[in-house]
Amino acid sequence: MSKEDKPTVLIVGAGLGGLMLGALLEKSGVPYTIFERSAAVKPLGSAMVLGPTLLPVFEQLGIYDELLAIGKYLPQTLTYKESLQPMPPLDLTPVEEFTGYGNYTVSRPMFYDLILKQVPPHKVQFGHRVLNITEEDNKAVVHLSNNTIFVGDIIVGADGAYSAVRQRMYEQLRVKGELPKADQEDLPFSCTCLVGQTGVLDPEKFPIVALPKCLFNSVHGQEKPFSWHTFNTAQGTICWMVLEHLSKKSSKAAMEQRFRDTNNSEWGDNPAQAMCNETRTFPLPLEGGKTGTLGDLYDATPKEYISKVMLEEKVFKTWHHRRFVLLGDGAVTAMHDAIALANLLYAMPTKTSSEITTVFEEYHKERYPAVMESYNNSKQLAKIFDTGIEGTIVNYLTTHMPTWLWRQVGTSSP
Ligand SMILES: Cc1cc2nc3c(=O)[nH]c(=O)nc-3n(C[C@H](O)[C@H](O)[C@H](O)COP(=O)(O)OP(=O)(O)OC[C@H]3O[C@@H](n4cnc5c(N)ncnc54)[C@H](O)[C@@H]3O)c2cc1C
Ligand SMILES: *[C@@H]1O[C@H](CO)[C@@H](O)[C@H](O)[C@H]1NC(C)=O
Ligand SMILES: *[C@@H]1O[C@H](CO)[C@@H](O)[C@H](O)[C@H]1NC(C)=O
Ligand SMILES: *[C@@H]1O[C@H](CO)[C@@H](O)[C@H](O)[C@H]1NC(C)=O
Ligand SMILES: *[C@@H]1O[C@H](CO)[C@@H](O)[C@H](O)[C@H]1NC(C)=O
Ligand SMILES: *[C@@H]1O[C@H](CO)[C@@H](O)[C@H](O)[C@H]1NC(C)=O
Ligand SMILES: *[C@@H]1O[C@H](CO)[C@@H](O)[C@H](O)[C@H]1NC(C)=O
């Protein structure tokens, strides 16, 4: 295949999905450009778990050893009540089955940097929001916020849960009456999540950071709709996340709040601080006979690296239209999608409209069942957690271990 026959790919969003696609296209010599609305990337987030099905791609990218060097082996997960009593033993077979155990924990900011380094800087256009996408003269066109257009063959929406690419694409389908009803509904929020990573901690005060392996600890609130989760990292830090599980009513209020605050799913400092204030007395197991509170972690985390994110649960049916295609949401899902799409684009014989449609259909056929299966499994898992635990928590946590959490940090089904 000559260079001219390869499609020019315009990727919207330099999140993990968009960058992973860029890194793979870079390796295979397919031309691409990434557009990212943020001027720079902030090292936000907690940790991710990478399992056996995702690890081979890092070998392919030549960064497997680097990845293992920043990661920490994760052999087990522990769950506690708020009293820090370990939970009654649960049947974790389903977790193991669909997480494939998730072997390595890596801090999200460090992982992000590693993937970003695989893409030459001039191929990521920071500070450019994509406002619209159109198709003209058999070309795909992105319309940028600086009133400039970029022309290519294919547009990939890797721009997150509130994807502008998806919204513009769905508008075009809705006008033609071709958008399924399920895709016309809003994203339901299932929880709000506070995430961050501490600086390097003193093992005297936080014995957990001295453990040779990673522990994924979860604590479930007593009579409060919260759960909180920690991972000790290879860098001697703790990655943490605090989830507030939303009811229908609080979900609606959170949604309204979000649209008042900003145009995206990240909230400003103030709501993050309020949630810190609300949760800082929540207790934490720290190993070595020590306990602490979430406040200890907040005090050890640079303020600007604490963020609050809305988590939504939905799998859209429509993934592509004309020359536009979407990458799934969820860190691990998005990366698997990127791998599938990169392989198909690389092998594409021509770049005609009909060939593009064929490739997108193939992509959907390959990925949709896998995404649905992991979504179904995590729903199933939520049910098991609910029925396995007696007491008051169940009343609050309708989705005990939220679908999102497992899809984000745990899923490694291909
Ligand atoms: C602040 C934050 C912290 C997180 N922390 C964790 C964590 O600790 N652990 C975990 O497992 N998961 C975490 N997640 C969730 C998970 O990483 C994301 O869901 C996952 O990265 C999905 O990847 P994505 O590439 O599809 O979307 P995103 O990561 O949401 O990336 C989308 C990118 O597109 C950009 N963008 C959006 N709209 C436009 C536009 N119109 N034009 C140009 N660019 C646009 C955004 O700025 C963003 O950089 C976090 C998410 C966020 C936002
Ligand atoms: C990772 O997990 C898989 C499946 O659970 C297991 O077969 C494999 O041995 C583990 N790898 C390491 C390095 O522990
Ligand atoms: C995007 O472009 C289409 C086609 O030109 C147009 O109909 C639509 O109004 C535009 N949408 C926005 C939000 O600009
Ligand atoms: C808009 O941004 C693009 C991408 O960086 C750049 O090539 C173009 O020159 C910019 N246009 C204007 C008018 O600033
Ligand atoms: C939301 O986006 C619109 C259009 O892009 C912009 O005019 C408005 O100022 C934004 N609002 C906030 C709060 O950022
Ligand atoms: C959080 O608590 C601190 C200390 O009590 C206070 O100064 C701050 O205003 C509070 N922030 C919010 C958003 O509630
Ligand atoms: C997921 O669940 C839905 C409805 O419960 C079912 O129709 C579908 O076949 C399931 N899909 C997979 C891949 O498990």
UniProtKB/TrEMBL annotation:
Keyword tags: FAD, Flavoprotein, Membrane, Oxidoreductase, Transmembrane, Transmembrane helix
Residue stretches making up the FAD-binding domain: 8-177
Positions of transmembrane segments: 7-25
Nucleus in keyword set: no
Gene3D superfamilies noted in UniProt: FAD/NAD(P)-binding domain
Cytoplasm recorded as keyword: no
Pfam families: FAD_binding_3 (PF01494)
Family label: Belongs to the paxM FAD-dependent monooxygenase family.
The name this protein goes by in its record: FAD-binding domain-containing protein
Native species: Linnemannia gamsii
